[in-house]
Amino acid sequence: MKQPLPITLSNDVVTLRPMTMAQVDEFYEAGRPEKIWQWTPPHKCESLAIATHWVETGLSAVERKEQVMFAIIDNATGRFVGSTRYLSIDVVNSTVEIGYTWINPDYQRTYINSNCKLLLLTHAFEKLGAVRVQLRTHKRNQKSRNAISRLGMSFEGIFRHSVLLSTGEYRDTAMFSMVRDEWPLAKQRLEARIAGAEVSDKSLVCDISDAAAELVEEQPLAQIMIASNDNLFDQIIYLPLQLDRARGVLTGHMSVENKLAWLLDNSPSVTVVFDGGDNYVSPVVHQKQLVPTWNYRRLHLSGQFGFLAASENEAAIKSQVLQFEGDTWRYEQQSEKLMTTMLTQIRCFEIAIDRLDIQQKLSAKKPVAL
């Protein structure tokens, strides 16, 4: 990997410029809102003096070639809206981290962050020759974790008590990474999301095998795990899902009161497991088999979760009712008042499938039907 150096990166909407001391006043003004520093105390812009010291410290690391510090500029307004860096630079092992990212609240959850990450990831993988790019955040900063997952990053685990904060507390850090082979698909998805377009390129649609499609139809109740959170026991829900094979998506719905809905608002990556059944095979059923075995079949999928717009709920729920209810309960036969009320109590969603794998063990001598 090449040594990352100060460089200007830009596209139509955002520019990343090498940070200089001449921009300290803008750095301070953009970073004054206290909530920016909720997960990374102390408040780096509590005063101009503190902001100046913080920038000086960062630029010293740049001089030592340990970091590259950027100012984030919104092209539409020319406004300084935040800062980000390359750090944890390991040229020998072709690894770099993107971090120290903060954005003024007026520009959070807009096009700024996704475009910044697109520029930084593209430069790291395609110009510097990185093999691995990592990001990390506070274990409890779920919005940040979901945003990182949406980039296509894989959650690797929790580094316990990894950072001593100014409060005297130790921070548990959630670690994410992306490797070079994963970047092309992640880039296409990120570019499509930035453009506000549906991902229609057939190369992005995961190939759904006949066996996988049949299993989902036979056993639609799925275990959904929010992959961006390490506490899986608290982050699992069970919901029936419908497969749209042509589009490579799973669809479903949940109550607006679902306890995990708030974790899903930022479109995290999820893991989905369909239970294809199992049975015990005694050795007595085979003349030469000396040990018992257990046949099983499971379908594992991963993908990007996303709630549908309210205007799309009716069409989605009609399709799901038709599959799961059959002729026992028809949407069209219900009163308009009932269905209007019902639609206010649910949220429909889709999971865009990234990859899938059927895990199974079937006796070679006697593949007993599951």
Described by its quaternary structure, the protein is single chain
Helix amount, in percent? 25-40%
Low-confidence stretches: 197-203
Strand portion: 25-35%
Query: Strand tally, please?
Result: 15
CATH topology-level fold name of the largest domain: Aminopeptidase
Q: What distance lies between the first and last C-alpha atoms, to the nearest angstrom?
A: 50 Å
Number of domains: 2
The radius of gyration over CA amounts to 24 Å
Overall structural class, as computed from helix and strand content, comes to alpha+beta
Structural notes for this entry:
With 370 residues, the chain is of the alpha+beta class. The chain has two domains: 187 residues, Gcn5-related N-acetyltransferase (GNAT) (Aminopeptidase); 157 residues, Pnp Oxidase, Chain A, CATH 2.30.110.10. It has an eight-stranded mixed beta sheet, sandwiched between helices. Helix 1 packs across helix 2 and helix 3 runs antiparallel to helix 5.
Question: Care to give the gist of this entry?
Answer:
This protein has 370 residues and is α+β, with helices and mostly antiparallel strands.
Distinctive features:
370 residues, alpha+beta, Aminopeptidase, Pnp Oxidase, Chain A, 2 domains, eight-stranded mixed β-sheet, seven-stranded antiparallel β-sheet, 15 strands, globular
